[in-house]
Each structure stands twice: as C-alpha cells, then as structure tokens.
Amino acid sequence: MTELKTEIKTRRQYEAEIVGNHLSLLGLPADSVGTLSRMGRLRTRARGTYFAFSLSGAAYLLVNGCISQTGQPGKVRLWRDSMLFESVSSNTLPGTYNEDRTNIYAEQTTSYAGVCLSRSTFIEFPNSKLSLVATEDSAIGLMLARMANKRYVIAERLYTATRANPVTRVAAVLDYLTETTRRNLIKTREDGALVMTVVEEPVASGPSQADIADALCLGRATVEKAISELRQAGALKAFSPGERTNRCYPVKDWTLLKQIALGG
Questions:
Q1: Is residue 117 predicted with pLDDT exceeding 80?
Q2: What are the contacts of 53-57 at 24+ separation with CB within 8 A?
Q3: How much is the pTM?
C-alpha cells in the first residue's frame, strides 16, 4: 500500500511538472503556474477520437493538437493548441459553442461534441477551483479573459460569413493552423558521408480538405482548388508523386501565405 501511494504521488508530481511546463508558456508568474499545476490534470485523446466534455464540472485547455468543434447545426470550428474552453468566462467547450453563448444546443444534442484531428492533449481544471483562483489571482483572471477574447476573435476572423474569396479564406485557416515542426533529415556531405540533421519546417496539419470545407461552409472541390492555387503561388509546397497526404500542408513561404490570408 505504501509503495502504491508513493507511485501515485510520484506520478502526480510528474504530471504537475508537465502541466507547469505548458502553463509557463502562457506568461504567467511562477506562483500562478504553481497554483494551476496543482489542480490541473492531463487528458490525452488519440487522432480520430470523438469527445464530449461536460463544462458543468471542468474547464479544458488544449495545449497540443488540432480539434474540430461541432456546435450549432452546420457550424464547425477548427482549433489548435493554446485554446481554452471553460464556463468561468461564459464560454463553452468545443461542441457546445453558440454565438449567443448559451448551452441550448448542447442540451438538445446527444451526438459527439467534436473530434480530435490529431493526437491532442488537454489540461482539465475543476471549474469551481478555477473560478475561485481567477478571483483571487489577478494574473490568472487576466489570462482567462485574454484567452476567451482570443477564441472569440479567431472565430469572428476565420469562420463568420465574409465576401473574401475562397483562396483567401483557406489561406487564413491554414495560416492559423501552421506550426513550426522539427524532423530528422539525412543529408550527404561534400565528402560523401551521410549525416543526420534536424530541420524546422512550418506545417499546417490535422484537418482534411473536407474538414476545412465544413468549417468554411465551402464545397470540397472549392477547397481543393484553393489549395492547388496556393501551391501554384508558392505559398504551400507541392507534393511529389507518392508524397501526397490529405491532412498535411507543408508551407513553402509563410510570409506569402499570410499576405494571401490578408487578401493580398
């Protein structure tokens, strides 16, 4: 029994350390990070996992991965890491979001709330405790307010009705989803020796073209054509024969992709 308690304690300390590492990236003071680390719990979902969380008891911070949120009928949102879903600031979790910030649709639906488009990691916080520390710790309260506003701004910018052309809209979503990734690459030196190096590449990954089409309320053929135009323009890399993947969009020129996303 003593060994089991020790193992649980050690595992909990390790989990708190990982949670703390994620939270420290948000610019919180060390004391605030420690407070949240002690109450946070890691939750991991594999790619393709359907999920439906209850906001009545917990808030969730997506710290890694890409998810598709299903809200009101016909409304889909794609989110990447550093996105908070909680009821402390009257926001709701993926699958229960409404423009008027109510939970009517969440109460009526019995289907899943969303799906993980890649392996995703959440930090779960008890809502009662998070609400309490938000009032006691101004840094945490400010963080919650900023993240709630960030989610609203992104939803307005990417997913509301607009007159922008499909290429611009698709570019904006891919720009939002793009992250710098590292991978090992074997190269040949001038002397003929093979060496392994680490290269950093910007890549948007997770959603299929169908997922993007659903999020933007566009036809799949329209999204496919827009992605093709982005490759022809040099914003996205063109795949060689046999390299094409449906959920990966390597970026060739990130600056150009951002310009196109702004309508340039």
A1: yes
A2: 53/85, 53/93, 53/94, 53/95, 53/113, 55/85, 55/86, 55/87, 55/92, 55/93, 55/96, 55/103, 55/127, 56/87, 56/127, 57/126, 57/127
A3: 0.79
